[in-house]
Amino acid sequence: MAQTTPNHTQTVSGWAAHDSSGKITPFIFKRRENGINDVTIEILYCGICHTDLHHVRNDWGITMYPVVPGHEITGVITKVGSNVKEFEVGDRVGVGCLAATCLECDFCKDSQENYCDQVQFTYNGIFWDGSITYGGYSKMLVADHRYVVHIPANLPLDATAPLLCAGVTVFSPMKDHNLHQAPGKKIGVVGLGGLGHVAVKFGKAFGHHVTVISTSPSKEKEAKERLGADDFLVSTDAQQLKKGMRTLDFILNTVSAKHSLGPLLELLKVNGTMVVVGAPDQPFELPSFPMIFGKRAVKGSVIGGMRDTKEMMELCGKHNITCDIEVTTPDKLNEALDRVAKNDVRYRFVIDIAASSGAAELPSNI
User: Fold this and answer.
1) CA 91, CA 78: separation in Å to the nearest integer?
2) In b/e form, how buried is each residue of 76-86, taking b as 16+ CB within 10 angstroms?
3) Three-state DSSP state, 30
4) Which residues pair with 248 in a beta bridge?
5) Residue 267: which of 288, 230, 296, 227 has the closest Cα?
6) Residue 80, beta-bridge partner list
7) Model-level pTM greater than 0.85?
8) For residue 148, which phi and psi values (nearest 5 degrees)?
9) How far does CA 317 lie from the centroid of its chain?
10) What domains lie within the chain, and their CATH numbers?
11) CA-CA distance, 167 to 309, in Å (whole number)?
12) What are phi and psi of 332, to 5 degrees?
């Protein structure tokens, strides 16, 4: 049983996995009272991230059951703590992966909280009070306001939810390379899934020539006609890769399956950079020659800090960028997770929490 504290007095209904079968069932649990630095959020939508699948099935061996997944959360504030000045009751807000950090290290002071040694996540983490965190597959969340962002009024809450993880995961490395302020580059996006499709949208909004690189020739039409990509390369076609050699300034690699980075590195110009945001469960193949003969760099990046998240959300409001989603309901969570495992979604599932068919009933005396 997850540890709680005497301050956990609010009874909440949600959905949890209780063992490595990964089956999600209705679940009643406790959340803490709203503290002086907290906001209470009525959750309206929550995206389904591939990370949720890994956690419910304990693929990484770190799951603390029962686990309530969900870190792509949007909703409306219903209560604010006395120290909270930038949020009010009724505000449309979002919560991503971060629940707590030390707030004192160099990374936290530079708003790179995601690299804090003491970072704790929105679910399956340990909060400051010692309790295990429960995520967005639930009706309500109490969150420290320092890890909450406003949602622009023009963006729908359902299609915005995945931006809190997928969106900032691709935005942060693009910002690190000044792609949000220096148009006219040639960039590549490897993989056209939940992360990749958002990266294409960002790349075009920021004024770049975008090439999608995929193993699936069938995705070319969608990449170009629906998402606005300029070019498309099939990564298993040696002739296409040869034609694309030394044409790209920057590559964002979103693929989570094992593959060789060598052929992709050859697509970069001299001094080009590839940033890896996908996380295969086996090591990459990384031959040395494409790096040393092109003075190329391979870097990694994970989600983003709160400054990046806020800036991304403002830019999404300005450019009207959201995710392409399929809305599901809580009673179909297991079906949705099975389809995520098969990559059978274009491009992100979002749970309509209010459509709470199959929710656990709260006791009548609550």
Assistant:
1) 8
2) bbebbbeebee
3) strand
4) 268
5) 296
6) 39
7) yes
8) -120, 145
9) 18
10) 10-165+304-352 (3.90.180.10), 166-300 (3.40.50.720)
11) 8
12) -115, 20
